[in-house]
Amino acid sequence: MRCRPTSAVLRAIVHAAVAASLVLAGGGCASPATPTPAATPTPAATPPAESPTVAPTPAHATPAPAATATPPAPTSVPTPAASLPALVCGKAVQRAGTVPIARMSGMDAANEAQAGRITFTFRPSGNVAAVPKITVRPARPPFTLDPSGLPLAVRGDAFLQIVLEGGTALDDQMNPTYDGPFDFAPAGSPIVEVKRAGDFEAVSTFIVGLSGAPCVRILPPDGQSRLVVEVHVQ
User: Fold this and answer.
1) What is the CATH number of the domain that holds 155?
2) Which of 22, 131, 159, 198 has the fewest CB atoms within 10 Å distance of its CB?
3) Do 226 and 121 contact (CB within 8 A), yes or no?
């Protein structure tokens, strides 16, 4: 007699078959891979916010203080000019020199306002106004050249002789220190003519022809290397 399986046995068999089928179905399949989460993109580095460019504050040049005008130095009281010496008529006048030898650098003769002036200029000697000793005296023709003794003609009605002792137009090598004229015939009066009579051994001599009897003075020194003879006629 064949025994029939009970319901309990049948349920057990069914459960086993189901389990076996599940095992067989999953035996050749890999477990589904857990999806790797997508890499979170690294956010691009945010450039540092640019600081607002501060416009340079224009340098305000501090105006230089206005220069204070320096007050002029007090003007010293001018020294009164030396008064003119008196005119000397018919006699010699003279003045001492400031150096042993004065080298002539110029000469002139002119008439103005009824007065004649004969001017001699010299090279300065350092800080010294260099002038030779001068003598002015009445003279009479005939006149001669020094040292040759040859005659010297000078026009005029009266005459003066001017002697410069230590005054010369030559240097130590006998080269001229003045190459201008020594003879003059200015327009007007009282000077009619001036001629050089000689320049020998550092002594220069001049003859002055005038329109009348002379009165003479040597103008006061003015700090320059020059001598000025002023002539009037009576």
Assistant:
1) 2.60.40.3500
2) 22
3) yes
